[in-house]
Predict the 3D structure of the following.
Amino acid sequence: MITLVREPAATTVAPIDAACTHCGLPVPAGYIEPGAERQFCCAGCRTAYAILHEHGLDRYYDLPERRDRPVRASGRQYDEFDHSAFHALYVSATADGLARVELYLEGVHCASCVWLVERVPLVVPGVVRAELNIRRSLATIEWDDRATPLSAIARALDSLGYPAHPFRGTAQENHRRREDRSAMVRIGVAGAISINVMLASLALYSGWWSGMEAQYARFFRWTALVLTIPALLWPGRVFFVSALAAVRARTLHMDLPIAVALAAGFARGVVNTVADAGPVYFDGVAMLVFLLLCGRYLQLRGQRAAADAAELLFAITPSTARVVGADGAIRETPAEGLVPGDLIDVRAGDTLPADGVVESGVSSLNLALLTGESRPVSSRPGDEVFAGTLNVASALRIRVTQAGETSRLAKLVRQVEEGARRRAPVVLLADRLSGWFTAAVLVLAALVYVVWMNIDPSQAVDNAIALLVVTCPCALALATPLAVTAAVGRAARRGILIKGGDALERLAKPSTLILDKTGTITEGAISLDRFDGPDWVRPLVLALEAESSHPIAAAFREGLGLTVLPDVEFSHHVIGSGVVGRVGGHDVVIGKQTFVVETINSDRAHTAFEVRAPISEVRRFTHDSGDSSGLRPLASGLGTLTTVWIAVDGHAVARAWFGDAVRLDAARSIETLRRAGWHIGMASGDDPAVAHAVAAQVGIEQTFVVGGASPEAKLALVERASERQPVVMVGDGVNDAAAIAAAAVGIGVHGGAEASLAAADVYLTRPGLAPLVELTDGARRTMRLIRLGILLSLGYNAVGVSLAVTGMINPLVAAVMMPASSLTVLMVAWRGRTFPEAPA
Amino acid sequence: MSVIFLVLPLALLIVAAGVAAFVWAAKRGQYDDLETPAIRAVQDD
């Protein structure tokens, strides 16, 4: 549909800092096109711009908040999206004859994404409606499936930077939707009732003080009673149901004291209403139901974020597999239907749907999802391969050994889920406290009443009521969840997504911090660090690497930029070694040193690296020769993964270094954290030598560095370290997922598999380690704020109780004091300084 | 003051109507997504 536009690049020096027209990021020097009005940082952004421009969607660039990361299209064809098995599983029909599908989109993160995704109907004809739920990255698409194949829609989304995956949890989704809606209904009903009961009670309280005719008092009591009954039977029922279940199971549950308090308060109120004398407790009962439901809802939303992430992880594994039948024909079947023994065909660029053994074919696999290793691993017949890994180079035939639930990936996912369950939802402190608090207050009020009956019967009722009013658990019940919610909300605006209050609590106190290397301390992707060679070599290299999906080829394209490319007459990829070809009349060899040397069969190349221009120029390059390409400086040679040689017409003419660069802010952030009292270690799936070198560079103690660690070894490391003190694990991939789940707090960082979200308590959407520093600071301040809130609330209640017990205040003063105090406590919780206010 | 016997039940009826409307809206999924519509409203052409 849209093809990459290549424009001539001049050889003159380009303007130093150009910003990408699409994403606004700086354009690498190799990509700058002098004189061009529009500059692009990568092919993805260029394509996305072309699509938007072609369909008159330039208004996108006027949006106040825009996507600030380069468009990384997967380039997949999404053929399986058109398969009938796929439609049977994921596509439903709407009432008006359209097809509807729900797709998970990767890369959704800001307001402009909503704008863009919902304008897909303008880009792909046949799409009638597209709606995006930004919190869950879930797009609902309705289209005419007779006019447009779903794969075309998926390809359009992909080229805009949102690779799509089918949403699989439709059954759970319906259940969850019902649960969410009834929670919302309960809150609404409880809120409406409690406010009205409160009004009736307020009239009663003021009546106690200023005098009220008995008929009115009776009327208000009965009004409050009649209103409270539905509050307990409908929204309040959940507490009684779970308390009853706890009693039956003979376990303690936090709903038990709550149910007791509600029942006791209501019963006493009914007795007093019928007797036509004494305080009614209906306002407290109704308000407690409402506030507790609010707290529960906030908590539920936090847990939902975790569930969403687990769904995303499943979405990333492929939905269909190509099964090779006995007759050699290939059928596409849903991946769920695979059984051990099946022979499957996996094309280049596809993700493996199951674990198995390579039967035929030679390729390289990207295991980053499982091991975090950024270098592709070559695989040949007999090798064991795993679901979730990406086939990079060429087609493979694989004999399935484990599929679905028993695959290694599924086991990792299960470990993640178990980890999340083990750490159980945060039992909100306020929930427990306010239940017991209410029960205690009821007992105390009864005591005050009895005692004062003996001292001064005329004051007994007043004092008991004043006590009940003044000790409203409101501040106590809401201050903590409110402070946590406010902090979480502010952190989210800074690109720090926190799933639960317990994570904040654990991050507030410095303990052990274990960092993953790839993607956390380093950038996490192979990039071209350095290119030594004459400029005329570049087009030859680019032309030969232009179509390859190999990461080295991608890094070449990224690093060297677009130029006019000569024609490729032929090319041949040698898996695990390199590529040979004839480009623009030259024989070109690119690959490992040994491969290049063997291929050109030149003993000169063995001895020294001599750059020979076939025409005239002969230069000897040294390691620190000037480099005008604008590439990142190679950080003292560390992190270099691969060196690639380039030979033209039988002479080695250039070398390129590829590495995984250390993030610029890593050393400084680690130093800041260490000064704050954190004990910092590192675990890496990479080679131990590389791990130690990187650790030395960013200032991590060599004794606390583990290299060559498998996911299982990382898990063991975290468990070992957890024996001494709580461990915070920071990682970026599914390979860290088990360790992240086992740690007291797991943190996922930007740029890794979005799936690592599943395990993480916190997810940092901004790259680098600086957000980590911000997170620990913010957590410390939030906990201080919560303690302050509880202290204020308890202090206020203590003063109020002593005043009421001693008969110093009457109910009306108490009724004024209560909201005033609650407001101050809630304001402190809501407005307190936790995370910086401004968006990052 | 005795007007309260008329006005209060009337007020509660109005509350009941409001609650019914809320329940209806919630059951129809109006509160399913609380974030995206806010963004959409600002962006619409």
Notes: The two ends of chain A are 36 Å apart (CA to CA). Chain A touches chain B at residues 59, 63, 111, 114-115, 118, 131-135, 177, 180-181, 184-185, 188-189, 192, 196, 200, 213, 216, 219, 223, 227 (CB under 8 Å).
